[in-house]
Amino acid sequence: MDGSHITGGAATAPFYLPQGDECDVFAAAAAHRLPVLLKGPTGCGKTRFVAHMAAKLGRPLYTVACHDDLSAADLIGRYLLKGGETVWVDGPLTRAVREGAICYLDEVVEARKDVTVVLHPLTDDRRILPIDRTGEELEAHPDFLLVASYNPGYQNILKTLKPSTRQRFIGVEFTFPRPEHEIPVVARESGLAEERVKPLVRLANKLRAMKGQDLEEGVSTRLVVYAATLIAGGMGVDRAIRTAMIEPLSDDADVKAGLRDLVTAVF
Ligand code: ADP
Fold this sequence. Notes:
2 domains; Rossmann fold; binds adenosine-5'-diphosphate; 10 strands
């Protein structure tokens, strides 16, 4: 299993509230066939953004959640036994290259090293995908677009992109949305009124300010949406915050107690 899924065609675009000029930049990159690297913390809207842009551009989207066992063969394809016969089955990257789709490699640094080797000839002006197993050398469809994301916040020297790879992409930086963006996003996603979302976003920003002290990563917009969804569904604010905005951040009892004090200060 490559863990990929396909969405799209020219369906209505999923809701995405732009933070800046990222939609224009992406559209320009797509027009000029330039690979795009989305940098930013987890849960800040990168995946939603790609889904939105793919729908707006009318291109199918293959999304692959990369993990440390994901190999080049998972992306390219492999021979499988089907009814006693060995048949070649394209992986998501090969399908995207053939069809002119967007291939989105989420958290690309997690993947095995052989994945980057495959990406190199696809991300320069050759735009080819050599398939060693079949002897094919695929020329990418004009509409094929490679998009990758990574989280520069994880301080892991082994899990960073080498310059030789990253300098093949244009870069778009994502940060957590400013309150004037995050409040309407969370309200829309959860169905909770903006007035009730405001203190959650204020709390989220206080928690984010603790990144690097007690927390490895600040609370994501995704978690704020979870908390708001629970509250909109009738859960008490305290419990919703504990389950959606505190427990996911830390396992340390002292740190969690500190975070709960912060909640009392905000509410
Ligand atoms: P990432 O890919 O960066 O980990 P996601 O794209 O999955 O994060 O975002 C998590 C959730 O946050 C989305 O499902 C969506 O509800 C919400 N979200 C964040 N930013 C936006 C935005 N600008 N517009 C709409 N929804 C957003």
